[in-house]
Design brief:
two-stranded parallel sheet, alpha/beta, 2 helices
């Protein structure tokens, strides 16, 4: 999925899906997950490729060493109250995002890719 306004939009009830070995490139919003349960988006220690993943790969196994969460509580707040988008880059919102990263206890459940890929997975070509 690339260059879309929203890569994937899931709402309550969209659970227990297997989402792995996909590529998400330059989507305005990679994932819009509006529900209250944790979702793991990896399978057999392989996740997805995210163009906005800022992690690293110290052992060169092509899998990121830190997990990737495409959304945070601020995103969910802005989806619930779209009129608040004008505050998106305000110092208050930036401070809330910083605090949320420093104190993960304050995080709300959402999508997590525990094994993000460092490069897009190879595409399979269907035989004629």
């Amino acid at each position: 999925v690339s260059n879309a306004e929203i890569g994937i939009h899931l709402t309550a009830g969209s659970e227990n899906n297997i989402i792995a070995k996909n590529t998400f490139i330059k989507n305005q919003t990679q994932v819009k997950y509006v529900a209250t349960r944790k979702q793991e988006w990896s399978l057999d220690a392989q996740g997805n490729y995210w163009s906005d993943y800022l992690g690293w790969d110290m052992n060169n196994d092509q899998i990121g060493d830190t997990y990737f969460e495409p959304n945070d509580s601020i995103d969910k707040l802005l989806w619930k109250f779209p009129q608040a988008k004008m505050l998106m880059d305000s110092p208050a919102v930036l401070l809330l995002r910083y605090i949320q990263k420093q104190f993960p206890v304050l995080k709300s459940p959402g999508v997590r890719d525990s094994f993000p890929l460092m490069t897009p997975p190879a595409r399979k070509v269907a035989s004629p």
